[in-house]
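queue> holo job accepted (NAP)
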Amino acid sequence: MSRIVIPQMKKQGKGAIVNIASSAHLAPIPSAAVYSATKRYVRSLSLAMERELFKYNIAVQCVQPFFVRTQLTQFSKTLSRGTFFGTPVEAFTRSAVFTLGKTQETTGYWAHAVFSFLLSLLPEWLRIRIAHAVADHARKEWLKKQVEEKEK
Ligand SMILES: NC(=O)c1ccc[n+]([C@@H]2O[C@H](COP(=O)([O-])OP(=O)(O)OC[C@H]3O[C@@H](n4cnc5c(N)ncnc54)[C@H](OP(=O)(O)O)[C@@H]3O)[C@@H](O)[C@H]2O)c1
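queue> job finished
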């Protein structure tokens, strides 16, 4: 996608690319290993692109949310409620878009920024264990929902 839009942005002398990573980049997540690895990749790609494209007046931003109430998290009661777990998508996007052009990386929402900061204080082995517990809990909720839907 970036390869398609960058030539046009260079011609017009401005542009913005927003890549959606996730807080999942903060630690390898057992039970969501590929997901967390790809989000780490997206962050690395975005930061490199940001420097490459800076001179063309093209902003590249990497958004790294925690849990937002969307289709993706709908299966889980835990991940789709409240301010931190399951931030309403309207509140999240309103806040995240405000940071475009101001910062190359953002969690997108204040509560996510607080949690990200607190997590960054922990050693990686502990972040992995916490992430594993959350992922396994969400997985159980997903499996339960599958069973409930089959029984309907
Ligand atoms: N929700 C969260 O808590 C959360 C947290 C961190 C990061 N993220 C990231 O945010 C991004 C958006 O997720 P979301 O929560 O907004 O999920 P979502 O509501 O399920 O939306 C996913 C979007 O991706 C599109 N899509 C899915 N597969 C596609 C494909 N193969 N080709 C093209 N488009 C495709 C879907 O299109 P259709 O509507 O046409 O199916 C939909 O518009 C994801 O990268 C996710 O990892 C989400």
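queue> The mean pLDDT is 94.
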